Amino acid sequence: MSANLSGVRHTRGFDLVKPLSITVIIAVMLPLVLLPLASIFIFGTSSGLDKFWAALMAPEAIFALKLSIVTSFWATVFNVFFGLFAAYVLSKYNFWGRNALIVTISLPTAIPTAVAGFALLLLWGPYGTLGRLLEPQGIQIMFTAAAIILANIFVTFPLAFGVIKPVFDTMSSSLEEAAATIGATRWQTFWHVTLPSLRGAIVGGALLTFARSVGEFGSTILVSGNLASRTQTAPLYIFAKFNEGQVEAANAIAIVLALLSFMIFSILFFARDWLEAD
Amino acid sequence: MASSTPTSEPAVIVQNVSKRFGQTTVLDDINFEVAESEIVVLLGSSGSGKTTILRIVAGLEAPDNGSVILHGREVTQIPARLRGTGVIFQAYALFPKMNVEDNIGFGLRIRGKGRKEIREKVDELLQLVHLEDHRRKMPSQLSGGQQQRVAIARALAYSPEVLLFDEPFGALDAQIRSVLRHEIRNLLKTIRVPSVFITHDQEEALELGDRIAVLNAGRLEQIGTPYEIYNKPLTEHVANFLGSANLLSGSIRDGQFAFGDSLLEIDDVESLSDGQAATLVVRPEDVFLRKPENLTQNYQRLAVAQVVEISFAGAFERVQVRLEQSPNKNIMITRPKTETAAFPLAVGREVTVGLVRFRLLPAGKTGE
Amino acid sequence: MMRPFPNRKHRLGIGLAAIALCCSLVGCLPSTPDADHNGATITVYGFSIMKEALEKDIYPAFSAKWKREQGVGVNFVSSFAGSETITNQILQGAPADVAILAIERDAERLKQGAATASDWGLRPNHGIINKTPLVILVRAGNPKGIRDFADLASPGLRVIHPDPVSSGGAQWSILAIYGSALLRSEAETGAPDQARALQLLQALWKNVISSPGSAREARTQFELGQGDALVTYELEGLLMKQAGSGIEMVIPKATIFSEHPAVAIDRNIDVAKRPVVQAFLNFLSSDEAQKTFVKYHFRSVTNEAFNEENKEFANIEQPFTIEKFGGWQKAYPDIIEGIFLNQVRNR
Question: Does ipTM surpass 0.85 in this model?
């Protein structure tokens, strides 16, 4: 999809506004976004590619990256399923408290991630409200990979929902009615008619959730225990390496994360037409 | 209520159906039937309740009172998906992510039919609606008329009890509308499935329907063949809705219609009593203008009038005359080419107004 | 073109297979490398600067020793952060078996929080496993001409100082500065001048441009070029010099020795693990471990002779310890809270 604004001519000769406005955009982005990103790449490879590679291949680093991907994967799976389900129910049924529920779903984005982590500790930690009941049974959720997944679920909760719900809102009800008159049950209608129209939103929501999850730090550092090669995700690893003074190693992993995010958002952009609902 | 009752067991019976939305009565005691392979058109302006009737028959809404019976089976309490109606929605509601053949085969697919059976049926229907070359296309790649045909094929795939069309021609260009109406009617007559159309377009109703039911503000005012509805309207609303009508107020005197100085003989006196106020309904094409002294036997002389306005409307001439007696009503007349050739008119000319065909309604039968 | 796999059952099967593949690739937790599945695992939460010494030498040495004696190795899992931070984590339930802390006060807090029941003070050296004096780090060539703590209050100087709220090292630093000021005024006037010491702290804090959460973080910032001076452990300075960073160490006339206790987190240690944890704690006080600490620029607490081995160690003219202030029970409320938090930082 190329630019879609009108091609009306506004000036007689050469139009200065176009190159000027583009320059302004880049000029603003340079110090705020472009240069910081570039400095990660420059610094990470400044000590030479072999050092960069060694930092990347460190077992702790590989573990951290794998752990980040796995925990983000499951958090995404959960939030996409729930987001889909919640969007369906909340746009189909009206009931007392419906709007309050919608707002509550969106709440986690407004909460500082450290607060989220702390809240989880207060609930599930060995002295927590629920955790203290589980502790005697030998069940400890906090300071494990499960805790990281829980924290990720909390922090990214409304993302997939927020992408999927508008599609439901704008979906024509006559499609569902048509399916019903043809003889489809609610499930058949959902599976054959509603879901295909949602595939773009589902994929978009999933990628958004995943990208956000991988970068999560504030809540993870509290609930995971930050144990290297056990519960240390990539962002935690970067932070630890930075604190140890091993800035190149930190940068190496930061580059990997940056590239991963870049890849995800490129997919989102270029597959936009396929993802678009009719 | 005048209606031509079908002789065999009706396919669709709508009985005493009423519906309210909050304070408003949307439907008030609706009763009609559709015979096998009959096309019934529900005609009315927006807000007359015609869409609601359709949705109630389909099961998309529930009536407050009354029942719907399809082929002898009472379906009022049965959910839409078990009724077996085929609905063609206003915007066709084709499933956007499925191609033409998947859309058509959908009904059979969810009924668990085998792949071979589905394919055979889909092929048959594609041939029926002349869309074989488009079977792989997505709905967004089809024209409005093609989408409509897919919608019909989709509904026919599972042999519905009745086809329900919701203003199907509204989204189409005027030129193809007439062509498509013709095609659809031929198709429906071929497959012999009972159908109900709803529309606000009286031309459409006249062309499509075997019978027309006229709705006004939730009430069924008249149901009958196009000829009956047009020529024997039972209320002023029905008269006005189909074609134009001139309405003249007068009273019954000695078994005749008295209007100013004129007296007109009337046929069906039995419904009206002497002294009763009545309204005379006459169509523009049933009024003839003659030189004041020339009025043959076939025409009932109404009054003398003066030509006020003449306009050229292609196949006929539209003339407005003003009666010289009180009340000085304006009458609208349409004159075919034979008339304009035989007796050309100019504004200001004096003429005699004669009626060949008219109806009398009790005054106040406005159908409000 | 025929759509591939039109058969619904085929499609369903392939879909499930794809999902299973996806889950196994992306959905399975990575295994921990180097896990000796026979041996015990000790989880150590240590304050930031303990990392190298523990991971590079102490852990392998102890594991080898245990293997010689018991036939199985020992796995170590660690988490490093500021001393206060790890104390808080353990209080919240972090699964530590052993905590190595920067200040004894954190051990007290663990005891109060019922994380530990044992009295580490009964172990040799009060449970302290190593120590290091607080010094000042400056840029190569000492361009600002800093010679003692008092110079840090010079107007215009930029100082990195970790946050005493989360960093044990920061608290040692405050005590070092305050204590040395008291000693100086005592030498000049015969009696310690608390007011002057307070003024020094206040003036110094005005120069602090960054207050990160741990000693290690502060060091990293200083290494990256921020600030003119950093108050930190001698060992941090020696490590930086060893790595070739362009810094110089300024040894104050009087300074405090930070003492680092190791504590067993009884709450997390089950009966089976108790022997190996106890052995590990004892190991930290053994000659082998103490010599290792000296190698990593910690000063030994068991035998001063070991400290001779490290030629880099500077001679402190007027060393003092927490005892000068009456132990942490008094030092914390009196100085850290009473003087620093109330009168210096929260002004």
Answer: no
Tokens 């840029």 belong to residue: C139
3-class DSSP state of C65: helix
- Identify the burial level of C260 via C-beta atoms within 10 angstroms of its C-beta, where 0-12 means exposed, 13-18 middle and 19 or more buried: buried
Which structure tokens are listed for C201?
């702290």
Separation of first and last alpha carbons in chain A: 15
Helices (H), B202-256: 202-208, 226-231, 236-241
Name the token pair of A204.
């978009």
Sign of CA dihedral C210, C214, C215, C216: negative
Residue of C nearest to A64 (CA): C30
Segment A1-30, tens digit of pLDDT: 456 677 777 778 788 888 899 999 999 999
Using a CB–CB cutoff of 8 Å, tell me whether C225 touches chain A.
no
| Three-state secondary-structure class, residue A199 | helix
Query: Residues 82-141, chain B: which have Cβ within 8 Å of A?
Result: 82-87, 89-91, 93, 95-98, 106-107, 109-111, 140
Measure the CA–CA gap between B346 and B295, rounded to whole angstroms. 19
Chain B interface includes A264 (CB < 8 A): no
Partners of A73 on chain C (C-beta within 8 Å) are 26-27
Residues in chain C: 347
| Dihedral (Cα; B273, B274, B275, B277), 10-degree rounding | 40
Contact B256, B266 (CB under 8 A): yes
**Subunits in contact with chain C (3 or more CB pairs closer than 8 Å):** A
Burial class (CB in 10 A: 0-12, 13-18, 19+), A249: buried
CA separation for the pair A129, A123 (Å, rounded): 5
Predicted TM-score of the model (pTM) = 0.78
Q: How far off is chain A from B197, nearest CA to CA, in Å?
A: 16
Q: Residue holding tokens 């519960």?
A: A231
Q: 10 Å Cβ neighbour count for A253?
A: 24
Centre a 10 Å sphere on the Cβ of residue C287 and count the other Cβ atoms it contains.
Answer: 11
CB C169 within 8 A of CB C307: no
Is the CB of residue B219 less than 8 Å from the CB of residue B243?
no
Subunit contact B93:A193, Cβ cutoff 8 A: no
Nearest to B110 among A175, A188, A278 (CB): A188
pLDDT > 80? residue C18: no
